[in-house]
Amino acid sequence: MTAKIEVTTPRAIVTGGTRGTGAAVARRLRASGMDVTVIARTPGDGDAENGAVRFVPADLTDPDAAAEAARRVLALGAPDVLVHVAGGSGSPAGGFAALGEAEWARELDLNLLSAVRLDRALVPAMIEAGRGTIIHVASIQARMPLWDGTLAYAAAKAALRTYSKGLAGQLAAHGIRVNSVSPGGIQTEAADRLVERLTERFDGDGDAAWDSLVAALGGVPLGRFATPEEIADVIAFLASDTAASILGADIVVDGGTVRTT
Ligand SMILES: NC(=O)c1ccc[n+]([C@@H]2O[C@H](COP(=O)([O-])OP(=O)(O)OC[C@H]3O[C@@H](n4cnc5c(N)ncnc54)[C@H](OP(=O)(O)O)[C@@H]3O)[C@@H](O)[C@H]2O)c1
Protein backbone atom coordinates (compact mmCIF):
# COMPACT_ATOMS: atom_id res chain seq x y z
CA MET A 1 0.00 0.00 0.00
CA THR A 2 1.29 3.46 -0.87
CA ALA A 3 1.32 6.01 1.96
CA LYS A 4 -0.95 8.98 1.35
CA ILE A 5 1.10 12.13 0.85
CA GLU A 6 -0.67 15.33 1.80
CA VAL A 7 0.41 18.31 -0.26
CA THR A 8 -0.57 21.72 1.11
CA THR A 9 -0.27 24.99 -0.75
CA PRO A 10 2.29 27.23 0.97
CA ARG A 11 0.71 30.28 2.60
CA ALA A 12 2.33 33.67 2.04
CA ILE A 13 1.56 36.96 3.77
CA VAL A 14 2.72 40.19 2.11
CA THR A 15 2.28 43.48 3.97
CA GLY A 16 1.92 46.44 1.63
CA GLY A 17 1.02 43.93 -1.07
CA THR A 18 -1.51 46.14 -2.81
CA ARG A 19 0.71 48.63 -4.63
CA GLY A 20 4.22 49.11 -5.98
CA THR A 21 6.83 46.60 -4.85
CA GLY A 22 4.49 44.69 -2.53
CA ALA A 23 1.95 44.11 -5.31
CA ALA A 24 4.78 42.73 -7.49
CA VAL A 25 5.85 40.43 -4.64
CA ALA A 26 2.27 39.18 -4.20
CA ARG A 27 1.97 38.50 -7.95
CA ARG A 28 5.33 36.72 -8.03
CA LEU A 29 4.57 34.46 -5.03
CA ARG A 30 1.12 33.66 -6.44
CA ALA A 31 2.74 32.75 -9.78
CA SER A 32 4.97 30.31 -7.91
CA GLY A 33 1.86 28.55 -6.58
CA MET A 34 1.43 30.10 -3.14
CA ASP A 35 -1.80 31.06 -1.41
CA VAL A 36 -1.25 34.80 -0.92
CA THR A 37 -2.80 37.18 1.60
CA VAL A 38 -1.95 40.88 1.43
CA ILE A 39 -2.33 43.41 4.24
CA ALA A 40 -2.68 47.15 3.62
CA ARG A 41 -5.08 49.97 4.39
CA THR A 42 -6.77 49.88 0.96
CA PRO A 43 -7.07 47.16 -1.71
CA GLY A 44 -5.26 49.26 -4.35
CA ASP A 45 -5.87 48.41 -7.97
CA GLY A 46 -4.03 45.11 -8.40
CA ASP A 47 -4.62 41.47 -7.46
CA ALA A 48 -6.18 42.39 -4.08
CA GLU A 49 -8.83 44.43 -5.86
CA ASN A 50 -9.67 41.73 -8.44
CA GLY A 51 -9.72 38.97 -5.81
CA ALA A 52 -6.69 37.00 -7.09
CA VAL A 53 -5.10 37.38 -3.65
CA ARG A 54 -6.83 37.59 -0.26
CA PHE A 55 -7.02 41.12 1.17
CA VAL A 56 -6.92 41.84 4.90
CA PRO A 57 -7.40 45.56 5.61
CA ALA A 58 -5.30 47.07 8.40
CA ASP A 59 -3.33 50.17 9.24
CA LEU A 60 -0.21 48.45 10.59
CA THR A 61 0.80 51.58 12.51
CA ASP A 62 -2.19 50.88 14.76
CA PRO A 63 -1.35 48.06 17.24
CA ASP A 64 -5.01 47.00 17.60
CA ALA A 65 -5.53 46.85 13.84
CA ALA A 66 -2.30 44.88 13.43
CA ALA A 67 -3.40 42.40 16.13
CA GLU A 68 -6.76 41.94 14.40
CA ALA A 69 -5.03 41.38 11.03
CA ALA A 70 -2.78 38.78 12.68
CA ARG A 71 -5.83 37.00 14.10
CA ARG A 72 -7.40 36.84 10.63
CA VAL A 73 -4.17 35.54 9.11
CA LEU A 74 -3.72 32.88 11.80
CA ALA A 75 -7.25 31.61 11.18
CA LEU A 76 -5.82 30.30 7.88
CA GLY A 77 -2.93 28.55 9.65
CA ALA A 78 0.71 29.45 10.29
CA PRO A 79 2.27 31.40 7.41
CA ASP A 80 5.05 29.68 5.45
CA VAL A 81 6.31 32.96 4.00
CA LEU A 82 5.98 36.36 5.66
CA VAL A 83 7.18 39.37 3.67
CA HIS A 84 7.13 42.81 5.26
CA VAL A 85 7.01 45.34 2.43
CA ALA A 86 4.79 48.07 3.93
CA GLY A 87 6.90 51.14 4.53
CA GLY A 88 7.91 54.49 3.15
CA SER A 89 8.65 58.05 4.13
CA GLY A 90 6.03 60.78 4.36
CA SER A 91 8.24 63.42 5.96
CA PRO A 92 8.61 66.91 4.52
CA ALA A 93 11.86 68.08 2.94
CA GLY A 94 14.23 70.08 5.15
CA GLY A 95 16.28 67.60 7.13
CA PHE A 96 16.42 67.32 10.94
CA ALA A 97 14.69 70.65 11.56
CA ALA A 98 11.57 69.52 9.70
CA LEU A 99 11.20 66.44 11.88
CA GLY A 100 9.21 66.79 15.10
CA GLU A 101 7.90 64.16 17.51
CA ALA A 102 4.99 63.30 15.22
CA GLU A 103 7.18 62.71 12.16
CA TRP A 104 9.68 60.57 14.08
CA ALA A 105 6.90 58.50 15.65
CA ARG A 106 5.21 57.99 12.28
CA GLU A 107 8.39 56.87 10.49
CA LEU A 108 9.38 54.48 13.30
CA ASP A 109 5.86 53.11 13.54
CA LEU A 110 5.53 52.35 9.82
CA ASN A 111 9.08 51.28 9.00
CA LEU A 112 10.09 49.40 12.16
CA LEU A 113 7.24 48.69 14.58
CA SER A 114 4.69 47.52 11.99
CA ALA A 115 7.00 44.57 11.19
CA VAL A 116 7.93 43.98 14.83
CA ARG A 117 4.32 43.83 16.00
CA LEU A 118 3.18 41.52 13.19
CA ASP A 119 6.16 39.20 13.75
CA ARG A 120 5.39 39.13 17.48
CA ALA A 121 1.85 37.97 16.71
CA LEU A 122 2.69 35.45 13.95
CA VAL A 123 6.06 33.94 14.88
CA PRO A 124 4.76 31.75 17.74
CA ALA A 125 2.58 29.83 15.24
CA MET A 126 5.54 29.54 12.86
CA ILE A 127 7.69 28.19 15.71
CA GLU A 128 4.99 25.66 16.50
CA ALA A 129 4.90 24.63 12.82
CA GLY A 130 8.71 24.37 12.89
CA ARG A 131 9.15 26.05 9.53
CA GLY A 132 8.85 29.28 7.60
CA THR A 133 10.74 32.22 6.23
CA ILE A 134 10.50 35.92 7.01
CA ILE A 135 11.78 38.73 4.79
CA HIS A 136 11.98 42.37 5.91
CA VAL A 137 12.24 45.01 3.19
CA ALA A 138 14.67 47.64 4.46
CA SER A 139 16.56 50.15 2.27
CA ILE A 140 20.12 51.08 1.32
CA GLN A 141 19.38 54.17 3.42
CA ALA A 142 20.09 51.99 6.46
CA ARG A 143 23.75 52.22 5.32
CA MET A 144 23.63 55.41 3.32
CA PRO A 145 21.13 57.79 4.97
CA LEU A 146 19.94 60.81 2.99
CA TRP A 147 18.96 63.79 5.12
CA ASP A 148 16.42 65.53 2.90
CA GLY A 149 12.95 64.10 3.51
CA THR A 150 14.09 60.67 4.67
CA LEU A 151 16.34 61.03 7.73
CA ALA A 152 13.91 59.43 10.21
CA TYR A 153 12.98 56.80 7.61
CA ALA A 154 16.65 55.90 7.17
CA ALA A 155 17.12 55.54 10.93
CA ALA A 156 14.01 53.33 11.16
CA LYS A 157 15.23 51.11 8.30
CA ALA A 158 18.62 50.73 10.02
CA ALA A 159 16.80 49.57 13.16
CA LEU A 160 14.69 47.18 11.05
CA ARG A 161 17.81 45.66 9.54
CA THR A 162 19.41 45.17 12.95
CA TYR A 163 16.19 43.70 14.35
CA SER A 164 15.96 41.34 11.35
CA LYS A 165 19.52 40.11 11.91
CA GLY A 166 18.91 39.46 15.61
CA LEU A 167 15.62 37.68 14.96
CA ALA A 168 17.36 35.46 12.39
CA GLY A 169 19.76 34.23 15.07
CA GLN A 170 16.95 33.50 17.50
CA LEU A 171 14.64 31.67 15.05
CA ALA A 172 17.21 29.59 13.17
CA ALA A 173 16.93 26.73 15.66
CA HIS A 174 13.17 26.61 15.00
CA GLY A 175 13.56 26.02 11.25
CA ILE A 176 12.66 29.62 10.39
CA ARG A 177 14.91 31.64 8.10
CA VAL A 178 14.90 35.43 8.49
CA ASN A 179 16.58 37.77 5.99
CA SER A 180 16.27 41.34 4.81
CA VAL A 181 16.39 42.93 1.37
CA SER A 182 17.76 46.46 0.97
CA PRO A 183 16.65 48.06 -2.27
CA GLY A 184 18.14 51.25 -3.70
CA GLY A 185 15.73 53.30 -5.79
CA ILE A 186 12.68 51.40 -7.08
CA GLN A 187 10.48 52.75 -9.87
CA THR A 188 7.27 53.19 -7.86
CA GLU A 189 4.80 55.98 -7.12
CA ALA A 190 6.42 56.31 -3.69
CA ALA A 191 9.71 57.31 -5.37
CA ASP A 192 7.75 59.84 -7.47
CA ARG A 193 6.15 61.21 -4.29
CA LEU A 194 9.59 61.72 -2.70
CA VAL A 195 10.72 63.71 -5.74
CA GLU A 196 7.49 65.76 -5.53
CA ARG A 197 8.24 66.63 -1.88
CA LEU A 198 11.82 67.61 -2.78
CA THR A 199 10.45 69.77 -5.62
CA GLU A 200 9.30 72.31 -2.99
CA ARG A 201 12.96 73.07 -2.29
CA PHE A 202 13.64 73.70 -5.99
CA ASP A 203 10.85 76.20 -6.68
CA GLY A 204 8.72 73.58 -8.39
CA ASP A 205 11.50 72.38 -10.71
CA GLY A 206 10.93 68.60 -10.78
CA ASP A 207 14.02 67.90 -12.91
CA ALA A 208 16.24 69.73 -10.42
CA ALA A 209 14.63 67.77 -7.56
CA TRP A 210 15.24 64.49 -9.37
CA ASP A 211 18.87 65.48 -10.12
CA SER A 212 19.37 66.35 -6.43
CA LEU A 213 18.12 62.90 -5.39
CA VAL A 214 20.40 61.08 -7.82
CA ALA A 215 23.32 63.35 -6.82
CA ALA A 216 22.66 62.62 -3.12
CA LEU A 217 22.91 58.93 -4.00
CA GLY A 218 26.23 59.65 -5.74
CA GLY A 219 24.66 58.43 -9.00
CA VAL A 220 23.28 54.99 -9.85
CA PRO A 221 25.93 53.00 -11.77
CA LEU A 222 23.24 50.84 -13.42
CA GLY A 223 21.76 54.03 -14.88
CA ARG A 224 18.23 53.43 -13.61
CA PHE A 225 16.22 52.44 -10.56
CA ALA A 226 15.16 48.79 -10.14
CA THR A 227 11.70 47.70 -11.20
CA PRO A 228 9.30 46.31 -8.56
CA GLU A 229 9.43 42.98 -10.41
CA GLU A 230 13.24 42.78 -10.01
CA ILE A 231 12.90 43.24 -6.24
CA ALA A 232 10.08 40.67 -6.20
CA ASP A 233 12.28 38.10 -7.97
CA VAL A 234 14.97 38.44 -5.29
CA ILE A 235 12.37 38.08 -2.52
CA ALA A 236 10.86 35.01 -4.22
CA PHE A 237 14.34 33.47 -4.39
CA LEU A 238 14.95 34.14 -0.68
CA ALA A 239 11.56 32.62 0.13
CA SER A 240 12.34 29.47 -1.84
CA ASP A 241 14.15 26.32 -0.73
CA THR A 242 16.94 27.23 -3.16
CA ALA A 243 17.96 29.77 -0.51
CA ALA A 244 17.85 27.17 2.29
CA SER A 245 21.29 28.16 3.61
CA ILE A 246 20.78 31.94 3.44
CA LEU A 247 19.89 33.21 6.90
CA GLY A 248 20.51 36.54 8.64
CA ALA A 249 21.61 38.08 5.36
CA ASP A 250 20.84 41.51 3.99
CA ILE A 251 20.63 41.41 0.20
CA VAL A 252 21.34 44.77 -1.45
CA VAL A 253 19.52 45.34 -4.76
CA ASP A 254 20.61 48.84 -5.78
CA GLY A 255 22.22 48.82 -9.21
CA GLY A 256 25.59 49.47 -7.57
CA THR A 257 24.52 52.63 -5.69
CA VAL A 258 26.27 51.78 -2.40
CA ARG A 259 29.98 51.92 -3.22
CA THR A 260 31.32 50.35 -0.01
CA THR A 261 31.45 46.63 0.79
N1 LIG B 1 10.44 53.10 -3.80
C1 LIG B 1 11.71 53.14 -3.48
O1 LIG B 1 12.52 53.79 -4.17
C2 LIG B 1 12.25 52.33 -2.31
C3 LIG B 1 13.62 52.29 -2.09
C4 LIG B 1 14.12 51.52 -1.02
C5 LIG B 1 13.25 50.84 -0.19
N2 LIG B 1 11.91 50.93 -0.42
C6 LIG B 1 11.03 50.18 0.49
O2 LIG B 1 10.30 49.24 -0.26
C7 LIG B 1 9.00 49.06 0.30
C8 LIG B 1 7.94 49.29 -0.76
O3 LIG B 1 8.09 50.57 -1.31
P1 LIG B 1 7.14 51.04 -2.52
O4 LIG B 1 7.80 52.18 -3.17
O5 LIG B 1 6.73 49.86 -3.32
O6 LIG B 1 5.87 51.59 -1.66
P2 LIG B 1 4.40 52.02 -2.15
O7 LIG B 1 4.25 51.91 -3.63
O8 LIG B 1 4.13 53.35 -1.49
O9 LIG B 1 3.47 50.92 -1.46
C9 LIG B 1 3.42 50.86 -0.06
C10 LIG B 1 2.48 49.72 0.33
O10 LIG B 1 2.38 49.68 1.75
C11 LIG B 1 1.03 49.89 2.15
N3 LIG B 1 1.01 50.69 3.37
C12 LIG B 1 1.46 51.95 3.53
N4 LIG B 1 1.21 52.38 4.78
C13 LIG B 1 0.60 51.35 5.41
C14 LIG B 1 0.09 51.18 6.72
N5 LIG B 1 0.14 52.17 7.63
N6 LIG B 1 -0.48 49.99 7.06
C15 LIG B 1 -0.56 48.99 6.15
N7 LIG B 1 -0.08 49.10 4.89
C16 LIG B 1 0.49 50.27 4.53
C17 LIG B 1 0.38 50.61 0.96
O11 LIG B 1 -1.04 50.44 0.89
P3 LIG B 1 -2.04 51.49 1.60
O12 LIG B 1 -1.49 52.87 1.36
O13 LIG B 1 -3.38 51.26 0.97
O14 LIG B 1 -2.06 51.12 3.05
C18 LIG B 1 1.07 49.92 -0.20
O15 LIG B 1 0.48 48.66 -0.45
C19 LIG B 1 8.91 50.03 1.49
O16 LIG B 1 9.23 49.37 2.68
C20 LIG B 1 9.98 51.06 1.16
O17 LIG B 1 10.48 51.70 2.30
C21 LIG B 1 11.39 51.64 -1.45
Distance between the termini: 56 Å
Count the E strands.
7
The CATH superfamily turns out to be NAD(P)-binding Rossmann-like Domain
Number of helices: 7
| Strands ordered across the widest β-sheet | 3-2-1-4-5-6-7
Small molecules bound in the structure, each named once: NADP nicotinamide-adenine-dinucleotide phosphate
Shape: globular
Instruction: Estimate percent helicity.
Output: 40-55%
Q: What is the average per-residue confidence, as pLDDT, rounded to a whole number?
A: 95
Which fold does the CATH topology refer to? Rossmann fold
Q: Can you tell me the CATH class?
A: Alpha Beta
Biggest beta sheet attributes: 7 strands, parallel
User: Structural class, from helix and strand content?
Assistant: alpha/beta
SSE topology string: EHEEHEHEHEHHHE
Tell me what portion of residues adopts beta-strand conformation: 5-15%
Write up what this structure looks like:
By secondary structure, the protein is an alpha/beta fold. The protein has a single domain, classed as Rossmann fold (3-Layer(aba) Sandwich). It has 7 helices and 7 strands. α1 crosses α7 and α2 packs parallel to α3. The longest helix has 29 residues. The site of NADP nicotinamide-adenine-dinucleotide phosphate has 29 residues, from α1 and α5. It comes from Streptomyces mimosae.
